[in-house]
Amino acid sequence: MKNKRSLSAKEIQKRLDIYLDVEFTFYHNEKQAEILAALPLTQQQYILAWVQRTASTHHELGYQFMAHIIDILNDIDAQTIEAWALHAMDTYDVKGLYPALEVIRNVNNFLQLSHEKEAGAVLEDEAAILLHFVHGLSGRKLKLEQAEQAYTDTETIFLPALVAPLENKKQNFKLYKVMVAYLWAQARFGTYQIDLQQQVEKSENPEKFIRLFHAAETLRLEHCLARELPGLYRQLEEIKSQLDVTLLDKQWQTIRQQLSNETSTVKDTLDIVNKYLHQLEPFEPYCYQGLLQPELTARVMQARIEDEKKQLKNILRKLQDDFDEGKELKSPQSLPGKERFDLKDINEQNSQQDFTMELMLDDQPITPPDNVKNLMSSILQDLGEIPEEYLVAAGDGEYDPSFFEEKEDDPDEVWKGTYHEEGAFLYNEWDFKRQNYRKNWCAVREKMVKPIYDDFVSKTMSKHGRLIRHLRKTFEAMRDENKLLKRQTNGDEVDIDAYVEALADAQDGSEMSERLYMQMQRHERNIAVCFMVDMSGSTKGWINDAEREALILLCESLESLGDRYAIYGFSGMARKRCEIYTIKEFNDNYDDEVKARISGIEPKDYTRMGFAIRHLNKKLLDVDAKTRILITISDGKPDDYDSYRGEYGIEDTRRALIETRREGIHPYCITIDSEAKEYLPHMYGAAAYTVIDEVRELPLKVSDIYRRLTT
Amino acid sequence: MQVQAKKTEEFYIKEEPFYQPVADEIKIFEAAYQQNLPILLKGPTGCGKTRFMEYMAWYLKKPLITVSCHDDLTASDLVGRYLIQGGNTIWVDGPLARAVRAGAICYLDEIVEARKDTMVVIHPLADDRRVLPMEKLGEIIEANDDFCLSISYNPGYQSVLKDLKQSTRQRFIALQFDYPAAEIEATIIATETGIDEATATNLVKFANMTRNLKGSGLEEGASTRLLVHAAKLMHSGIESTMAVHSAISQALTDDSDMLAAVNELCSSVF
Q: Tag placement on chain A: N or C end, fewer CB within 10 Å?
């Protein structure tokens, strides 16, 4: 084939006019078009495609991208260009237009950063491993978060986003690990057991005091690490030697000696610092040691100490109550308020190491549940001991049973504030124009459908009485039945028929069969199905009624079948307000409350579908089943208040369904939209949907479709 | 060498198995045995339940019949069934029936794995009746005085399907097993495998790290059994991180992040 000629400047300009919406935005693109016209066709097409993708996010972004890409086209490879454009679009999603334009303009900055990223370790990539790592170490379970500098507030370890002083990724990862271990050691070996903030304020030279304290404490913690994690300590030394750390002078070496003792505590560090405050200069901080944040830590610790005291006292009260209940008769000595709890140290020689206390109640050892053990070791970590006042069970006034309920934010409460993402599930959304995901785009919240106890269920039952009886019968017939397999080579019982036949065979000289046994075989229907019900505003009226009736019929049928099923409603208003309404979870029984919730299903807002599919996928994957099915009951195409219209919504839904299939879940759609044939095959595939023409047929059809689907 | 096949009920454990008692479990088991009470061993996998049974069988000088339960284990597999031989059917006792007749200790390992209906056949054996009804024979065997029923169960399984029914569990004397305290566990590993105490202590330290991860990424921490495996590898000259990687990390998880984290923990200790 003849080589295709390049596009002319005019042709290019025509395309750019469309991509950049020049009719309204008035960008001048003649100059760029001319430059582009000089390039070969493949490069032209490549650039135009990316201009289109970036411009779909924001026109200005597309325009700037085009303006800059021409300058650097020859310097960087395609992969980097793509990373650069995607990074700009992600920045736009998270921070808005100006920071995104900054990314485009500072392309050199991006290039340098990506070089660094190549050799350096990136927190985002390593966080999962580091978090598991720090959870494996003993003591309080610390969290990981990103920050400018490395430090810890004894609850969270903060780490920089990128670590790159060493030559390759592997080495830099090791540095991350050493940082984590060192900060863990601060929390574990009691750096904050003294009130550091108070000490700083007291000091004549606070600035020098903190530097000196940090240096000396680092030496002490290094010894702790060497003792606890010798392998890690070797890596720490190796990193230090690579970074040409200056050796300690004589004075510091002596101090190191003094602090390298099994029994050295933070108090020893403090004594030394106070003693030498004027004669000693701190050495250059090590690369892993980060910052000390006495003020912040003091605040975090104070809140925690108070909270944990309350928690412990409440838990002890509960243990005590359970204990008394077990004894039945209350002996006179068990007066409330009397000190009945005690701690016995069962392992004295290395109390520094692990939590080896035994909890005693009325002089009898009791095994505290794991959460109590964790709580007590956390207190021990903060205070170095468990004070006696902690060991008195909460009196009636202090006792607060809500401590034992899991605290969860009430979604409605959160909404009263401004757009809060706290506690919400975040899901990506597919942007077809960008050909990539928008990261953490939808904030999804689970809510309960408010149960309404009315006569809807009983009315439906009597309205469809005959149908329900019929459905029950059909579904019961599908139930897994134990099959007696005859003529097996082995089994539980002798198959007399086969045996008689075999004996007859033997008599007349033919060969005797070996298949003489019967075996009971069970066929298990190992199916979990999740129903996703459209609760958008458009279902108002008889569609909603039909949906609810369909669900009642479905539940009746499924109850007689025994498959595990869950029902959720979905609706949303823009990406920050996606809502999943729980109607029945997999573990819920089909009881009056569930019935009342079905009755309480009411139309809400819009039909954003992608997030619901993604969220319910996760729910389905949590259930242990051989076959997982996700059935959507809907009345129209995906649609939302913001850009989730038309093709965008359809493409995102399609993408979400592709993810579903990739996870091994079978999606299916039942719809009453007569136009559905235009878009459903594209979303669900040709055979995975049913269109119901008459709304009033929905209740009859849904159960029927389910039956066909699973046999 | 001549290999001698023995009937299960004639299988005695002749040499004392190594078992390090943690609390009063031996005394309690012995008392329950004297009183004809059935015993339930609870505890995570690989913490020494089976070894304890072997030790008790040796200690009480009784034959031990172990049945590892699986999800296809039926009542006939325990009680017995008819087989065809020549022109006739003959009855063959299952392991439970053999133990009941001969007065052996019958140990049903991981009982929850078995089919639900198998549980029912042990019920009459596990209360004061101490009989085994053999429906197909139309007979009831009274248990020999020496017979002892013991089952094991791992409450760590979170699955609702694999829970022990109240009607079953309330018939047994329950003994709780857990991973032994650090020093004891180190001694066990050193004695079992012949590695030095220091390495054994490090192994236990590492095991406790993986146990910290239980619930936040791992289903179970490293069991004593896995530690013994790793120690055996080390004893035959495999470098320690490699031994831990093959014997422990890979056995614990398939998740690549978790594997990396576990390996990092290991390299921090050794």
A: N
